């Protein structure tokens, strides 16, 4: 299930996503009508940091179910250059978890 996968990747996504990529993802989910304008504006204005915005975005998407979660996952893993950077960070973190000793 996509919503389960999104939950599993939540922490890595939140710690990896850039402000520019997050705004692109918000535009994408708005265009696909996964979120409405009010929800997108809430994410942008309610949260002070990129991490808070990313957390809020995922927390809005997951309850909408597997289809909505899959659409966000598709955008995260899209060939778009900025989203590919998020994908690379997620894969690197999964394969080579950061160590506090490095």
Automatic annotation (TrEMBL):
Organism field: Sciurus vulgaris (Eurasian red squirrel)
GO cellular component, one term: AIM2 inflammasome complex
Pfam families listed in its UniProt record: CARD
PROSITE patterns membership: CARD
Protein name: CARD domain-containing protein
Any single biological process term in GO: regulation of apoptotic process
Gene3D superfamilies associated with the record: Death Domain, Fas
Gene Ontology MF: a single term: cysteine-type endopeptidase activity
SMART domains the UniProt entry points to: CARD (SM00114)
Limits of the CARD domain: 1-76
């Amino acid at each position: 299930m996509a919503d389960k996968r999104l939950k599993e990747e939540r922490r890595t996504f939140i710690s990896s996503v850039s402000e520019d990529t997050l705004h692109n993802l918000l535009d994408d989910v708005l265009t696909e009508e996964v979120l409405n304008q009010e929800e997108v504006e809430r994410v942008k204005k309610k949260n002070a940091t990129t991490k808070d915005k990313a957390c809020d975005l995922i927390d809005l998407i997951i309850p909408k179910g597997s289809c909505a979660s899959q659409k966000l996952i598709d955008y995260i893993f899209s060939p778009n250059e900025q989203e590919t950077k998020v994908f690379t960070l997620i894969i690197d973190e999964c394969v080579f978890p950061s160590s506090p000793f490095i």
